[in-house]
Amino acid sequence: MVRPYLPLKALRAFEASARHLSFTRASEELHVTQAAVSHQVKLLETQLKVPLFKRLPRGLMLTQEGELLLPVLKSSFDQISHTLERVGESSYREVLNVGVVGTFAVGWLLPRLADFKDQYPFVDLRLSTHNNRADIAGEGLDFAIRFGSGAWHATAAQPLLPASLSVMCTPTIAARLNTPADLLGETWLRSYRADEWTEWLLAAGLPRSFAMTNSIVFDSSIAMVEAAIQGAGVALAPPLMFPRQLSSGALVQPFDTAVSLGGYWLTRLQTQPETHAMASFREWLLTAINRRDADS
């Protein structure tokens, strides 16, 4: 698009005068004479063929055309100023605030953070963990990664990874579990979502009446799995998020049964525009997940 001639001096003189409603104060800001500011504004009015100010005995008042022009110019000059500041810095950086459910943070994200920083050094990443309850607006988050069905009010959700749940425990406990019914004699470690164990038991062929007679409730799968490693009981958690514990032999999966009640999602407010840093993080995240799927 070919832009018409932009009288930048005149536009700047008008914007400063309109903010102050004074040619004198505008001249002090711009470090020119009051006459020079008045002259530039007059040139702009001549070019536009409309008056932008009503000249009053004790100051200025914007006309309807001036009121229309001022916010556009102010926003444009603010953006130009901000961009020049960033370009002039030795290294441009953009803050990105991401809240991550602890299980995903420890089990998937943290081992890959070095790769993200290598690819996007301009992003000043600030991570906070949560137990799947994130207030994006209240906490000032750009993104929240959480577990669920993807249905959160006023939230745009991008699916990331499935999270099938399986029983995990120490080899010592596993040695006395011949069938799922043998779980009745163990301590059950569970999250605050009580239906997870119920659904797993049904998938394993046990009746709904099979009761959890002895259980401990955790608000974090990380703490729950650590308790399982310490021999406190049997945990129901996503093996995908605990590969190190399984590969080391600290935990085993005594049964093949798995049940899926949700997955991990990248979420943000629907009303929030995506920044460059947000787009970079989202694209990196999806690429890394697709790479994992291709390798598996």
UniProtKB/TrEMBL annotation:
It comes from the Bacteria. Pfam families: HTH_1, LysR_substrate. Gene3D superfamilies: Periplasmic binding protein-like II, Winged helix-like DNA-binding domain superfamily/Winged helix DNA-binding domain. This is LysR family transcriptional regulator. Residues 6-63 form the HTH lysR-type domain. Belongs to the LysR transcriptional regulatory family. SUPFAM superfamilies: Periplasmic binding protein-like II, Winged helix' DNA-binding domain. It comes from Vreelandella glaciei. One of its GO terms (molecular function) is sequence-specific DNA binding.
